[in-house]
Amino acid sequence: xxxxxxGMFAIALLAAILTLTGSADASAxxxxxxxxxxxxxxxRLYMLGYYKxxxxxxxxxxxxxxxxxFQGGAGLEKDGAAGTSTMRALRKVTVSRSDLSxxxxxxxxxxxxxxYSGQVAVxxxxxxxxxxxxFPSSVRDVIFAPNAFxxxxxxxxxxxxxxxxxxxxxxxxxxxDPSKGAYYFYNPRVTDSTWFESRKVTAKIGNHxxxx
Length: 212
Fold this sequence. Notes:
212 residues; mainly alpha; Arc Repressor Mutant, subunit A; three-stranded antiparallel β-sheet; Muramoyl-pentapeptide Carboxypeptidase, domain 1; elongated
C-alpha cells in the first residue's frame, strides 16, 4: 500500500511539473505570436543588434532567427521561442524602448560634452539605482524622484538627445558600468555641497565624480 501511494504521488508530481512546463511553453512568444509583447521583444533584440528587420509586432521568421542568435550568445537552448528564461536573460541586458529614451535624455542633459565613457557612467547610475532596494525600482521613477536629477528640475531633460547619448544608454543597459556601481555623480566645479564628502568615490571621469 505504501509503495502504491508513493508511486501515485510521484505520478501526480510529474503531472504537475508537466502542467507547469506546458503553461510556460504556452506563454512563450513564437512564430504566429503578435502584439505589444512581440514589439517589445523585437525592440530589445534590435537594441542588441540581433534583429535587423522592421518593428512589426508580429513574430516572423526573422524574429525567430534573432531570438535563436541571442539564445546562442546567452548559452540558452536555441529553440527560437522567447519563453521565461530567454526573456529574463534579455531583460538583464536591455531596457524597454521608452526607458532607453529616458536614459538617453538624462545622458544628454547631464553629460553632453563629456567623454563617451562618462556618458555611459551617467546612464549606469540611473540603472544602478533602479536595481537597488534603496531607490525606486523603475527607470522612470528613479529619474522623476524628487530632486534626483537637476536636469529634470531645470528642464534640460526634455532636450532631444543625440545618437551618442542613445549609444551610451544602450551600453549601460548591457551592464557596461564605468561608474563602478555608483548611485550618485556630481561636478565639483559647479557643486560645493558637503553632502558628497560622506560618500565613497567609485570613479572620476571627465568633470564628474561618481559615488556610492
